[in-house]
Amino acid sequence: MPGEISLKEMKALEGQQVGVSDWFVVDQMMIDTFADATHDHQFIHVDPERAAKESPFGGTIAHGFLTLSLLSALNYSAIPRIREQVMGLNYGFDKIRFASPVRSGQRVRGRFILAEARFRGAAMLMTTYDVTVEIENEKKPALTATWTTICQFDPKDRPED
């Protein structure tokens, strides 16, 4: 459990690693379910025999967007919860790079560096993280991204500047 932090403490963490997630297995069932949800049934994802014979990966690989979508789950075990937060929202990505494929059965984890934390309006904290999704026992990461989220809170909880 990553614990809790206050809104006031967030700014002091800029430039620091705020967490590393637990390892998370990306198995064939997850890949198949993602393929069904996105209608992306390319053989390199869903046909282990064909992927072993015809792809350079030696078997099936996760969709890049599946790996990206795991950031939500990875951050829950890595980033401290903001005590005053009422709701969190994805705001978007400034940069995403898919550096290496995640093979079926591999484990991944997220590494989160808080690049920026700034207040917007009376009740929002915008946070930007430099994120790396690492693959266990691999030198290259699965992906790197710059991810912006919004923490909404009650305006009465906003710290004084």
Descriptive report:
This protein has a single domain, classed as Roll (Thiol Ester Dehydrase, Chain A). Strands 2, 3, 5, 6, 7 and 8 form a 6-stranded antiparallel sheet that branches. It is elongated and about 60 Å long. The protein has 161 residues and is α+β, with helices and mostly antiparallel strands. A hairpin with a 3-residue loop joins strand 6 (106-120) and strand 7. It is built from 6 helices and 8 strands. Residues 14-118 form the MaoC-like domain. InterPro entries: HotDog_dom_sf, MaoC-like_dom, NodN-like. This is MaoC family dehydratase.
Give the overall form: elongated
CATH topology: Thiol Ester Dehydrase, Chain A
Distance between the termini: 29 Å
The portion of residues forming beta strands comes to 35-45%
Q: Tell me the major beta sheet.
A: 6 strands, antiparallel
Helix percent band: 10-25%
Low-confidence stretches: none
CATH architecture assignment: Roll
Structural class: alpha+beta
CATH class, please?
A: Alpha Beta
Series of secondary-structure elements, N-terminal to C-terminal: EHEEHHHHHEEEEE
Radius of gyration: 18 Å
What's the domain count?
A: 1
Q: CATH superfamily name?
A: Hotdog Thioesterase
Would you count the extended β strands for me?
Answer: 8
Arithmetic mean of pLDDT: 95
Report the total helices.
Answer: 6
Domain MaoC-like: 14-118
Protein name: MaoC family dehydratase
InterPro entries: HotDog_dom_sf, MaoC-like_dom, NodN-like
Pfam families: MaoC_dehydratas
